[in-house]
Amino acid sequence: GAFVSALYTEDFELMSASLRDVLAEPYRQKLIPHYEEVIVAARAHDILHIGISGSGPAIYTLATREEENVKALKAAISVFESHGIEAVYHSGAALTEGAKATKINQD
Prior knowledge:
Helices cover about 40% and strands about 5% of the residues. By secondary structure, it is mostly helical. The protein has a two-stranded antiparallel sheet. The protein is globular. The mean pLDDT is about 90.
């Protein structure tokens, strides 16, 4: 509920707090090489959160501005590459219009 509430109210502090995973992430981070170094590098940029996506090994970042998100992701990639680990990132803006119905033409 907190994350959805944060979306509606644009409460970015609550959004960041609601994404913290104190149960699973401490165990999963051990499976990602140089995880702590990656986190520090990404947090040097203006992001709301960085975390492990699902059970890993993907890492995600969340920011209010796309350029800061990209900077954080590039910093994370640099850490991996400095240790000889190949990594890529994908970034995109969140959709803001919500769900909509579309008619599919089935000719």
